[in-house]
Amino acid sequence: QVQLVESGGGLVQAGDSLRLSCAASGRTFSTYAMGWFRQAPGKEREFKAAISWSGGSTYYADSVKGRFTISRDNAKNTVYLQMNSLTPEETAVYYCAADLKGIYRGSYWYTSPRKYDTWGQGTQVTVSS
Fold first, then answer.
1. Rounded Cα gap, residues 14 and 11, in angstroms
2. CA gap 93, 75 in Å, rounded
3. What is the spatial distance between Cα 105 and Cα 96, in angstroms, rounded to a whole number?
4. Which one, of 95, 91, 82, lies nearest residue 36 by Cα?
């Protein structure tokens, strides 16, 4: 089975940057589309960014376009989320997820948690004012 482990979260000031990492093990990482979601206390899990299995296509929530960048390094079995210009509203637990099935449903499907089969345990990001 596939296991995902997030890291890189922490406490930062508003306007600062942070890079999250998601390391995968158990299966061939390069064949999976990957997504990043966040979940604030008492809120639903929310899409932030996704990347296709090849790395050739990326997708972003409107709220993070121009500030966040998703990338992957298949040689390291790792996907990254570079977060710039952070705001307190982005305080949440951030999760990475893998789509093991690879069923194409259109680009919009990348934004849905239902696309993904395997989730990490999350990493906490806290942004202070």
1. 10
2. 26
3. 20
4. 95
pLDDT of residue 74: 83
Q: Residue 68 corresponds to which amino acid?
A: F
Question: For 112-122, b where at least 16 C-beta lie within 10 A, e where not — what string?
Answer: eeebbebbbeb
Residue with tokens 């299995």: 53
Tell me the pLDDT tens digit for each residue of 72-85. Answer: 998 888 999 999 99
Q: Tell me how far apart the alpha carbons of residues 27 and 15 are, in angstroms, rounded to a whole number.
A: 37
Transcribe 55-75 into DSSP letters. SS-EEE-GGGTTTEEEEEEGG
Q: Tell me if 80 sits within 8 A of 32, measured CB to CB.
A: no
Q: What is the SS3 assignment for 98?
A: strand
pLDDT at res. 27? 66
**Helix or strand run (H / E) with residue 83:** strand 78-83
State the pairing for strand pair 123-128/10-13.
parallel
**Distance in angstroms (rounded) separating the CA atoms of residues 89 and 40:** 9
